[in-house]
């Protein structure tokens, strides 16, 4: 299980939980796990999020999540 | 070729002439409006004069009857059934039931000349039922504000919020209240920033052609040809691969040319005109009224600080309107606002709000300048109150590798401390100031972005190399990519030609945005070159009859990896290339990925101003930009990014801004009154390139394009307070506002 | 649109008088072409005056003043040393109109006839006591410059009439003038406030003065009270303050995209003071 | 609307075109003569991207009618280099990286050439004010000013 840190306004969909433990060894599996545990998150996550594994944004849903990694969700980043 | 002092590299870090320089100083370079095609028609767009109005009826008969008119399109000519962002794009391309802002397109015409097209556009009769409008972000959240679009909110918005709030976002960590309790000084202020425009000098222009077979082509000035392809295909209802989009040279973008505006209209008009190509060139007023400016913002910030300058907690609530569609960068603004500081506790909340203004687009570090204006202004005021040197405060709280960012995760390798040290050491900080003069300091941050990237390269018969990239060259990226490719291949810079290619030539590329061209296309070009090197080593190995692993690539030639590999003279790239036809065929390399390892970039700016106490006029005396580039591939163009970003930030701070009248119409849709800095407004802009290499890039590159626009807004506000004692909390800080603030400060 | 290139002012007036639709005269074109481009004006007849002999000339009049052709661009005024020596305030007003490129085209007559309250060259012409020669279907007449503007975009010219020359009086001794404007940037803006001062000294004291303000009323305005505040003084601090107050009091500005009414009133006083100082120094013969 | 036959000289070459009297000189250069080096950035004389020299005088070609060019001489960016030899300003712009997107560059080069022909030794301030009508949004002007000053020095025969 991996602890995924959510931003605070997502806790509305997670019964108030800020950190959600989900199974998975890739960024994509974590997102699927989150949606399975809390279906209300689905539309928000599908709208586009960045999965940050330790200090780097995962470039792919297949990016592996190492044991003990710190995982944060962030808004999808864009630029000018 | 000037070579800067250090260098473990042969080419990286030198300053050769840019490959497209000759074309651009002789007028030969072809931009969006410079292309013509046989049988070409000219398009013109009919735009709403109202901020908000129901479109009762559009009568195109008079326009159609005009001699020379070949097509008129309205929303009825576009497919239905689009959803989400595609629907937003289509609605913004041509209004459906309602015009949502002054300048919103409602119809378009194509004719045999530009003058006939303009005449025909005037003959299109539109009946409007004018509706109440709102253009200010705070007013748009007021209980009695007109609702721009029912049901536009996305699932992030909790029930009960104002219907104009379409996205809601919050993050926090730590105990903010406890942080404030520990502080010796807690201050709270509200800041407002006005919408600005990227102000690229080249108006949008395209030449589109679409046949009844669904196959089309487009020549267009854009930061991203694949974005144009996908968006246009969706809006006009064709298959993406059937549309071939060729990017012209681009006359500036800064984020504003990452999306579509009138481009689909050229295709829709062409389709209706029997496939004749249609050229549409926007006027400057169309650009300002109806392309994608920034959001405007209203921001509350509260910060706690100890006497020694330690920040204990920060709280921010940002409200932004990005026009009549979702997309204001309120999330990015909040992420960046506290990024340069170790924050024991933060609480941030953001609202994306609809208003009757054009759909905002990205602009250089979208959101970051607004957030910095609020936070860096307040921090400066607090330093002033506590008698702390603002550089000391920045150093004391600066984030380092491994520190937790205000927005959550930990930072990897970053160069903020190095930037601050270089700033402190700069001679500009010790120049004495005179009467009515003041110095302001501020930091800025941008993430940077990887994005979908596809690059291919091929070795030519003579041992030179061509690189095909999908990121249009806005500010010298051909030069930086050629430098990295040549460095990797071990050949002269002049032996590499970098081509920006059309959509048919590569896999999908994201635009030149997010400071990514030199990072992402550069990284992919290096990978592609490595791919080719591997093949060239294999060919040499086959020639020598040794194992490929026993061959290494040194200075543009294959050579045995050591004495055990055999004794052969180096085989140069030209020798290998010269006979590639008989050794296995063409040698090429390619790379497709979403590159990870993006390097964030921090900057710190120092500005000296002089304020005329009788008129409120602000003169920039000197300006310093210090920023981490990771590694500067072509230092001149890195400096150029720093200087250009600073100039845009100075404009935003002082005189730029959208001015809407009571009627909701844009009052300053010309450069006469949309006041971008002119040459005589600015001093030389001093730069220091700090290099803390990004471990995620083969040459250490961090994107450098965006951070530079962020610090000027607060740095100038801080300098004005230093000069006059007056604190401005609203942009632009134009002379009437500055004079009023000086008088208010004097009054006590 | 019909494009005419008359060879005399009389022909130009005849064409204009006979025209049925929208008519515009073309000298420098820096306003007309912008308006055409924006679709604000679509002339049926455009009468290009630059083919009329003398329109490009700057000539001394018999009494020692100046006759300036209506197609003389700003850059030619600035390049005319004797004119600059006589009327630096008039020339600097014109030179503030737009960029170097605009200076290659824009004219005093055009700036005046455009009827903008913010026209940079008009306050200087007014304080100089310039008059315009007007040619029309009924012959020629003259009119003081201050009587030409009648409101934003409106002038005292009757249908078929056009300005055929601008005439500056002789400078005379111990005179000095100056025009200053306030803009948010350093160049390229329309004046938020403009102020011209022209004065003559007698024994170190201001014997005559004229003060005009731009962009603070529907037309550029002459402000006799402001002039009265400095006449009889050597422009000491009290006189400067009285001048500033008179200018501020006379200003009747509006708030718009270029500035607030409050700001304009205040800055009108500031500019009056500063312009008077320069005019005073010039009158004394300082090379300011 | 009937068109007017215009005979003029562009970069020393005699040319003719038919112009609608509403068309600007910029329109005619670009669309009638194929000289697309002059750019339209604003159409109101505020950006200078269309700068040309008309009978020796620097103007915005968007504020000149095509028909006004009758009998005159027009110099555009396309005539700045002499064959293969770039004008020193053009060389210095490349050398100093005084362009990013390059869209304003033709107008700035034409304007700077006009400056150096009237004032071979301008101060930085003089260069900045002369070029105030040429907007550049990419560079912050720094490298442009340096390139112009350096080209001026070279033209004066001073070592750069």
Instruction: Please give the CATH class of the largest domain in chain B.
Output: Alpha Beta
Number of helical segments with 4 or more residues of chain D: 5
Most extensive interface, chain pair and sizes: B-D, 59 and 63 residues
Strand order across the biggest sheet of chain B?
3-5-1-12-9-10-11
Main sheet characteristics of chain B: 7 strands, mixed
> What is the number of independent domains of chain D?
2
The spatial strand order of the largest sheet of chain D comes to 2-1-5-3-4
Strand content of chain B: 15-25%
Domain Aldehyde oxidase/xanthine dehydrogenase a/b hammerhead (chain B): 26-132
Protein name (chain B): Xanthine dehydrogenase family protein molybdopterin-binding subunit
Organism (chain B): Thetidibacter halocola
GO molecular function (chain B): iron ion binding; oxidoreductase activity
Task: Walk me through what this model shows.
The complex is a heterotetramer of chains A (80), B (748), C (288) and D (160). Chain A is α+β, with helices and mostly antiparallel strands. Chain A is 20% helix and 25% strand. Chain A is globular and about 30 Å long. The mean pLDDT of chain A is 94. Helix content of chain C is 34%, strand content 25%. The radius of gyration of chain C is 19 Å and the shape is globular. The model of chain C has no long low-confidence stretch (mean pLDDT 96). In chain D, helix 2 crosses helix 5. In chain D, strand 1 and strand 2 form a beta hairpin. Chain D has a 5-stranded mixed β-sheet, with helices on both faces. Chains B and D meet through helix 1 and helix 17 of B and helix 1, helix 2, helix 3, helix 4 and helix 5 of D. Chain B: It comes from Thetidibacter halocola. Chain B: GO terms for molecular function: iron ion binding; oxidoreductase activity.
